Known about the structure:
Pfam family, one (chains A, B): Dak1
EC number (chains A, B): 2.7.1.121
Largest sheet of chain C: none
Helix content of chain A: 25-40%
Structural class of chain C: mainly alpha
CATH architecture of the largest domain in chain A: 3-Layer(aba) Sandwich
Number of strands of chain C: 0
Bound molecules: adenosine-5'-diphosphate, magnesium ion
Largest sheet of chain A: 6 strands, mixed
Distance between the termini of chain C: 16 Å
GO molecular function (chains A, B): phosphoenolpyruvate-glycerone phosphotransferase activity
Radius of gyration of chain A: 19 Å
CATH topology of the largest domain in chain A: Rossmann fold
Organism (chains A, B): Methylobacillus methanolivorans
Domain DhaK (chains A, B): 7-327
CATH architecture of chain C: Alpha Horseshoe
Oligomer: heterotetramer
Shape of chain A: globular
Amino acid sequence: MKKFINNVDDILTESLSGFAAAHSDIVSLNLEPHFFTRREKAENKVAIISGGGSGHEPLHSGYIGYGMLDAACPGHVFTSPSPDQMLAAAEAVHAGKGVLFIVKNYAGDVMNFEMAAEMLPFENATVLTSDDVAVENSTYTTGRRGVAGTVIVEKVVGSLAETGADLAACKALGDKVNSRTASMGVALTSCTVPAAGRPTFDIDETELEMGVGIHGEPGRRREKMRNADAIVADLVAAILEDLKPTQGSEVLLLINGFAATPLMELYLLYNSAAKLLQAHGLVISRSLVGNYTTALDMAGASITVTLLDDEIRQHWDSPVHTAALRWQC
Amino acid sequence: MKKFINNVDDILTESLSGFAAAHSDIVSLNLEPHFFTRREKAENKVAIISGGGSGHEPLHSGYIGYGMLDAACPGHVFTSPSPDQMLAAAEAVHAGKGVLFIVKNYAGDVMNFEMAAEMLPFENATVLTSDDVAVENSTYTTGRRGVAGTVIVEKVVGSLAETGADLAACKALGDKVNSRTASMGVALTSCTVPAAGRPTFDIDETELEMGVGIHGEPGRRREKMRNADAIVADLVAAILEDLKPTQGSEVLLLINGFAATPLMELYLLYNSAAKLLQAHGLVISRSLVGNYTTALDMAGASITVTLLDDEIRQHWDSPVHTAALRWQC
Amino acid sequence: MRTEFILAAITAVNDAVLNSEAELESLDREIGDGDHFINLKRGCATLLAMREELAPLPPADVLQRIGMKLLSTIGGASGPLIATFFMTMAKVEKAGDISTLAEISAAFTASVEAIKQRGKANAGEKTMLDTLIPVANTFSSLTAVNAEPTQVFDAIQQAAEQGMLSTKDMIATKGRAAFLGERAIGHIDPGARSSQIIIHTITELAKQHQAA
Amino acid sequence: MRTEFILAAITAVNDAVLNSEAELESLDREIGDGDHFINLKRGCATLLAMREELAPLPPADVLQRIGMKLLSTIGGASGPLIATFFMTMAKVEKAGDISTLAEISAAFTASVEAIKQRGKANAGEKTMLDTLIPVANTFSSLTAVNAEPTQVFDAIQQAAEQGMLSTKDMIATKGRAAFLGERAIGHIDPGARSSQIIIHTITELAKQHQAA
Ligand SMILES: Nc1ncnc2c1ncn2[C@@H]1O[C@H](COP(=O)(O)OP(=O)(O)O)[C@@H](O)[C@H]1O
Ligand SMILES: Nc1ncnc2c1ncn2[C@@H]1O[C@H](COP(=O)(O)OP(=O)(O)O)[C@@H](O)[C@H]1O
Ligand SMILES: [Mg+2]
Ligand SMILES: [Mg+2]
Ligand SMILES: [Mg+2]
Ligand SMILES: [Mg+2]
């Protein structure tokens, strides 16, 4: 394992401190327990809080700021944060209109946020993101994972919250965006959890992992390496199979890098995916390409498609000012 | 070599097309010869044009747009673009006030831009960036390389050009920013040039390359892997040795990833570098952390420090709207 | 339940967990995200550091503080589940001293029940419950017939081991391994294995205290 | 200089470059950025595709078109330098037919001089000039004494080889290898080697044409 670190035990604190220092115009860091808030507390809005294991940067701390999150709780690497963090973050940012948690659907995150929600003295609700179509959905199982589509949910809900909308409306829009969003990912290499010091899975030069999440967990299947168009075709097929969009639907296309895949390749994937979606009669009216939801140092990428409507498009386009997403302000 | 590609020969065109499609609100792509321009031609300003080998994305095409470049010429991977590209780009964006080329100091780039400048029917000037302090400067040699500091030069000069400043003023500010900017980089892995299909250099788990550029060329020396603070101390020492800032100087600190190093590590480096600069009595008033000048799929990072003054700070802060840098608009 | 025993168990479990580093890490690497050992180690280290603070407290408070502390230190899926276990034990202990084996068994069953609620899971889903549920069943049926303590501990150890091993052939329906579908088959669940190690360690300790 | 010979040289040089793939690639990987072979290959392939278009043209136009085409296809450091060579050859040819060996030698010297100007470089800086300058010198001194063509070609080949080999022990002061400082020592310059291969190929071809 070769990484820019001092001691494995200090990675998180040092990295969070660096983030806080580099973006001190946008965020503040609380150290015990760990959570980030906006530098200026927002008033008269639902407090939007997310969080999850670290290692997915810029998710979630990079999305704190005007038009998106009020606070984020970073856990240890790939480990859900704990209820005390969420409670303290909620205490810090609650502005009288309730708290909305945006939680990626993993057993650990769900349970920790659930316990926080049970203890929280404020009105609250939770949007569970579950956009990963690599996993079959079912009410009897843990169900689908939340992956890169979470960024879209956070942006859109964050925008609505900024208008003063109430908790129920924010929750409803979050659920709607999640239900109209589908993602699937592919890994070319494993990632290395710093404390473990070795790659989570072994994979050779001729193979890829299809249907991976964002934790270095193995995907649905190991396959022979193929060319980009063939890989994209499989990912897009699974996404469209899930979304079943009608001809002429307007979509947002996100090509998300897992961290170690260069922009040159991500744009090549965009080119391939966009052509395919257009061939299916879809209109790509919004795009995002880059490392928005990562998996430590993994090489790979995911494709996310969101079916837009006027409401979602409007809230996607609205001003946002965070470390990782910024426009119109 | 495991990359998201179809045919090695098509990578560039496919990736450029993806970039153009994903950012069609900002840029237009011309295919023969290859160059990007702003979607809307700007009037009444010096035309700012950059370019260089591909593989450094988002440099330079990601910096086209209001407040920065008017056009960029992408060469093949790590290969300078050729004069016909620069001539065609200049023809497309020249707005009667002359053309300023911003060129990273490499023999190939310098000669190709020089030949274009000689053939160009418009008034023109060139700013050569040479911020890499890993290389000793000398008028008898090729001299220092231009690396990540180029982004800062492009941002600041781009802002001045937007005010209608004349060619001489833009050239002078570019030279000034370059002379107040110093960078140095370190690689943990090599990159793989797609057409070559294998890593440019071999390096094992216990080593790093100190003083590398952005082309997978070997650095100044091979060293044993050390902790982040020790690596940062060496980079910062070389930078300060060059800039010789006075106590209390105000600086911009850029931690630039070479592509495969995750944000978590880049922020950890920021934390380390910021503390060191502060201990040297410097005031970090502006920051940038991310993959802004990359080297294909290399793991590694560089540190860049620019000595600010009122003029540079003002042009750094001014509105910019490009694919990779956007604020205040 | 005595505070002294709980403190001794903390030390013993910490040792046992540290000794299983390679195995636990690789189990969670195979069908999870590789952090289960690290999560447990962090929890154990925190409890170890709390021993002095816990020593003077009554068992109900000790269990409650352990639960709250683990809730804020372990994180992940195992954190809230293990914390829930201790918080339920604390609640039962608070309601009335747990001292006989039968009482401990009842408290254990209630705490496992609380894990099931929290995780919305049951036996056969390839989780720690595949160790814990058989243990709870064995524990209560043997204490119901007033079996000898050593007999009870041996039976618990056996049930834990069988339960843990049974996860190997399962498809997971809860937790991270659920994302793997059939690829999870052939791998023991890390939480099932760590629970079994912990139960084995505590029952061994109980046997020693019994003998002494 | 005859168009026919130039076209034959294009084919021969293309073959020679392709045959040196591994070597050229690894030389530029060691002290450059690994693309020198790819750049040359791209240039050769483009010229190959132009042969039909070039065939009916007078040599001056052929050389000029080659220069312009290489300028827009090779890129990098070698692109403008090689292009400058051809554009200068074209200029000299245009000014007055180059046909005798002495005339070719003068044109060659002028073209190498143009490379020196364009690259602001000279002998001893670990570049292609360490092959080209000794070749120009040998070429002109032997044609000045009216040496036999084969003698001239053999001497050129030797000078090219020696020049190319001499780069091995140099520190570079121009081009990418200059960034390496002392680490460049022990490696032959890729441009020096490719120039030597090309010169060797063309002189071999000239010897055959001579013999025929
Ligand atoms: N819903 C659940 N109910 C019971 N146990 C669960 C549940 N989800 C996960 N687990 C247990 O948690 C273990 C994983 O713990 P850990 O690795 O610490 O957390 P995470 O899965 O969040 O990384 C699994 O091996 C499994 O035994
Ligand atoms: N200033 C210069 N003068 C002469 N030759 C040069 C100069 N700079 C570089 N070269 C030659 O160019 C070669 C490298 O060419 P190439 O790899 O195609 O371009 P780049 O260095 O831009 O990647 C070097 O090996 C050297 O021989
Ligand atoms: Mg985890
Ligand atoms: Mg090159
Ligand atoms: Mg785990
Ligand atoms: Mg080269």
